[in-house]
From TrEMBL:
<protein>
    <submittedName>
        <fullName>Transposase</fullName>
    </submittedName>
</protein>
<dbReference type="GO" id="GO:0004803">
    <property type="term" value="F:transposase activity"/>
</dbReference>
<dbReference type="GO" id="GO:0006313">
    <property type="term" value="P:DNA transposition"/>
</dbReference>
<dbReference type="InterPro" id="IPR007069">
    <property type="entry name" value="Transposase_32"/>
</dbReference>
<dbReference type="GO" id="GO:0003677">
    <property type="term" value="F:DNA binding"/>
</dbReference>
<dbReference type="Pfam" id="PF04986">
    <property type="entry name" value="Y2_Tnp"/>
</dbReference>
<feature type="domain" description="Transposase IS801/IS1294">
    <location>
        <begin position="6"/>
        <end position="127"/>
    </location>
</feature>
Length: 210
């Protein structure tokens, strides 16, 4: 199956490259077809859109979305959750702000750990090889400049970030920007101690911690 998939994929790729007038050298073509592909294909339970939606939950969403937050009163945070032990019934849980932040921080990725890794010629270790390939193919490599704080990103009609994501009518207003910074030492030490406690505990004990 890997050979067939490679052939079909490269056939469409070369057809697109020809339409886009991308120079594909014979050496590059030979290299593409000489690589052994590892392919695992399985029919989705619903459709491709459902697969993308499922993966996006883990790659482009935070630990808790805004619509699940119900109230923040007197130092307590109330939010909805699904109780899968009782038929996925939606319930409301209330935690003090400190405990809510502690649980939220458990979902923050540790340093050097990313949700999406790039392999092959897109990986960081092949940065120089990618640049050489771009030059060989006549592709202009331009570094994308990061937007500075305060720069209007809403000039793109298809991406208006000022519209409220909840009601789609109100206009969001930027009140304050927070500079990137590490958490206070006291909180950081508590999180490290809790992570160490989780690491050295059994599965049953971990369920009581989280």
């Amino acid at each position: 199956m890997a050979t067939v998939y490679r052939g079909k994929f490269l056939q469409e790729f070369l057809r697109f490259a020809k339409q886009a007038e991308l120079p594909i050298t014979p050496q590059l073509r030979k290299t593409l077809y000489s690589k052994n592909w590892v392919v695992y294909a399985k029919r989705p339970f619903q459709n491709p859109a459902a697969v993308v939606e499922y993966l996006s939950r883990y790659t482009h969403r935070a630990a808790i979305s805004n619509h699940r937050l119900k109230s923040t009163d007197n130092g307590n945070v109330s939010f909805t959750y699904k109780d899968y032990a009782h038929g996925a019934v939606t319930k409301i849980m209330t935690l003090d702000a400190g405990e809510f932040l502690r649980r939220f921080c458990l979902h923050i990725l540790p340093p050097m750990f990313v949700k999406i890794r790039h392999y092959g010629f897109l990986s960081r270790r092949n940065k120089e090889e990618l640049r050489a390939f771009q030059q060989e193919q006549g592709i202009n490599s331009t570094d994308v400049q990061k937007e500075k704080h305060g720069d209007p990103l809403y000039f793109q009609e298809e991406c208006n970030i000022t519209i409220c994501p909840c009601c789609y009518k109100g206009t969001l207003t930027t009140i304050l920007y927070f500079a990137a910074n590490a958490p206070p030492p006291t909180i950081n030490n508590k999180l490290k101690a809790h992570a160490k406690k989780l690491k050295n505990s059994s599965y049953e004990q971990r369920k009581t911690f989280c």
